[in-house]
Specification:
Blueprint lengths: L2 E10 L3 H12 L4 E5 L6 H6 L1 H19 L15 H25 L3 E9 L4 E6 L4 E11 L3 E3 L12 E2 L1 H4 L8 E5 L3 H12 L3 E5 L12 H13 L3 E3 L2 E7 L5 E7 L6 E5 L1 E4 L3 E3 L32 E3 L10 H17 L11 E3 L4 E6 L2 H6 L5 E6 L4 H5 L6 E6 L6 E8 L2 H13 L4 H5 L9 H12 L6
Parallel strand pairs: 1-2, 1-5, 2-3, 5-16, 7-14, 8-9, 8-14, 9-10
Antiparallel strand pairs: 3-4, 4-5, 6-15, 11-12, 12-13, 17-18, 18-21, 19-20, 20-21
This protein binds flavin-adenine dinucleotide (FAD) and nicotinamide-adenine-dinucleotide.
């Protein structure tokens, strides 16, 4: 084992949090090392999360559209077949292109990249078990923990990634299952459920709460997307809790209970996707060697400057507080490096957008209606349906709406909730408006190009203080 020179910063984890911090640190002139055990950079997001799921979502949507949505567009197609192998290869190509891109950016910014598993030997020294065998150690003036998260297991239903799967298995099934039960109607359940439903599986989503979409989705929007997904063939069992599972038979059996105390039921399927949330991942990191605590949900405890109780050791991304989102991790990465380099940094946690990449997409930023009600904050609503938007009409893609929530006195935007085509791109405008404290009138008096879907956004803003023109 060789003793390396002391670095300004050692980062454990090369996911979005870790790799963005490494590049930023390089740009700021810090001597930085990033340790990643996966063998590829980009973490969950690039390897088994955001990127491969969006590849399958995009291509399964095209396949489904070609099967069901061409005749009224004047396109006659012949025999349409699914080539799942090729669809998976297209996904792998996108992933490997992007992960290699980060290696290039590491080189460009002078970041040292060590492939191995890092463990705290002391408060400044990280021992690394190298992927290729052997061991090394790195010493850092500052250390950044960015070890991410993992799927929460369901007791009694062990993952084999073929029949009982996490999102990772759902990204690489070898054939389309005849039936799939998704436990958990959050973002992963609905995105991956959509993929396999479009490719031909009979998908049933079992959700404990009375609403799909996971935390943060506006009630009205959640109801609306549920209806649309049902129209596409997905089944929903809401207010239903999976209590136990049995994978010994040919089909997997699940015992479910109605949350309202109805009759227990047994469901079965060829494949079960467990999507009941993710939990912070810090196994093997040796936090106990340096006396760092986790909270009751396994998150590394930090202060508002991302410092653990050892102030030179910081933590960002999925393994600490806040929403488990790649863009949140990225913002924290930049802020953490700014704290180290300059002593100040900032992330506005009230203005982090969320996007669910189903079709139509669902996107939101700021507060939703149920949160405003619960907090007794007065608000007014502006709605605009895509069925009244010229571009959505020409695209024959009119499901959904834009919903704006604004302060009744000042007209300041409080939240925006969109279900509709391209909602994920459109939410950037709402995010900017919220960040700048815009009023809905500011938005509505800003000229929007015609014909665009964004005009629905403008008209929903108009509807909060006046009337929409086209509805
Ligand atoms: P991770 O990406 O998990 O990276 C942590 C890295 O640390 C891993 O690569 C791990 O191998 C490494 N590591 C852990 N311990 C050690 C150790 N001791 N030594 C060395 N290396 C170590 N978010 C979005 O914003 N948009 C999306 O569309 C989206 N889609 C998703 C789809 C799926 C199926 C999943 C599962 C997640 C999705 N997410 C999405 C969430 C997103 O992937 C995470 O929020 C993001 O990856 C968090 O980044 P991170 O760097 O904190 O953690
Ligand atoms: P989630 O928290 O969004 O949803 C989990 C759902 O499972 C909840 O609605 C919960 O009520 C339900 N549930 C829990 N136990 C259950 C049981 N026994 N029976 C029935 N239902 C049960 O978690 P997720 O969908 O697994 O996603 C994990 C994380 O990954 C989230 O933080 C999410 O933001 C992130 N992610 C984001 C994107 C995106 O931004 N597009 C995509 C995928 C994942």
């Amino acid at each position: 084992a060789s003793q390396a020179e002391e670095k300004d910063l050692v980062i454990i984890g090369g996911g979005v949090a870790g790799y963005v911090a490494a590049i930023k640190a390089g740009q700021e002139g810090l001597k930085v090392t990033c340790i990643e055990k996966r063998g590829a950079l980009g973490g969950t997001c690039l390897n088994v999360g955001c990127i491969p799921s969006k590849s399958l979502l995009n291509n399964s949507h095209m396949y489904h559209s070609i099967l069901h949505d061409t005749k009224n567009r004047g396109i006659d197609v012949g025999d349409v077949k699914l080539n799942l192998d090729a669809m998976m290869k297209a996904k792998d190509t996108s992933v490997s292109g992007l992960t290699k891109g980060i290696e290039f950016l590491f080189k460009k910014n002078g970041v040292e990249y060590i492939k191995g598993t890092g463990t705290f030997a002391s408060e400044n020294e990280i021992k690394v078990a190298l992927n290729d065998g052997g061991e090394t150690s790195v010493v850092g003036k500052n250390i950044l923990i960015a070890t991410g998260s993992e799927s929460t297991p369901f007791p009694g239903l062990e993952f084999d990634e073929e029949r009982v799967i996490t999102s990772t298995g759902a990204l690489s099934l070898k054939k389309v299952p005849e039936s799939m039960i998704v436990i958990g109607g959050g973002i992963i359940g609905l995105e991956m459920g959509s993929v396999w439903s479009r490719l031909g599986a009979k998908v049933t989503v079992v959700e404990f709460l009375n609403q799909i979409g996971g935390p943060g989705m506006d009630n009205e929007v959640a109801k609306s997307i549920q209806k649309l997904l049902k129209k596409q063939g997905m089944e929903f069992k809401l207010g239903t809790k999976v209590v136990s599972g049995d994978k010994t038979g040919e089909k997997i059996k699940l015992e479910v209970d109605s949350a309202k105390g109805g009759k227990p039921e047994t469901l079965d399927a060829e494949t079960v996707l467990v999507a009941i949330g993710r939990r912070p991942y810090t196994a093997g990191l040796g936090l106990e060697n340096i006396g760092l605590e986790l909270d009751d949900r396994g998150r590394v405890v930090i202060d508002s400057e991302y410092r653990t109780k050892h102030s030179h050791i910081r933590c960002i991304g999925d393994c600490t507080f806040g929403p488990m989102l790649a863009h949140k991790a990225e913002e924290e990465a930049v802020a953490a490096i700014e704290y180290i380099k300059k002593g100040y940094g900032h992330v506005n946690y009230g203005v982090i957008p969320s996007v669910m990449y189903t079709h139509p997409e669902v996107a939101w930023v700021g507060q939703n209606e149920q949160e405003l009600k619960a907090a007794n904050i007065p608000y007014k609503v502006g709605n605009f349906p895509f069925s009244a938007n010229s571009r959505a009409k020409t695209n024959l893609d009119t499901d959904g709406m834009v919903k704006m929530l604004a302060d009744p006195e000042t007209d300041r935007l409080l939240g925006c909730h969109i279900v509709g085509p391209n909602a994920g791109e459109m939410i950037a405008e709402a995010t900017l408006a919220l960040e700048y404290g815009a009023s809905c009138e500011d938005i509505a008096r800003t000229c929007h190009a015609h014909p665009t879907l964004a005009e629905a956004f403008k008209e929903a803003a108009m509807a909060t203080y006046s009337k929409a023109i086209h509805y």
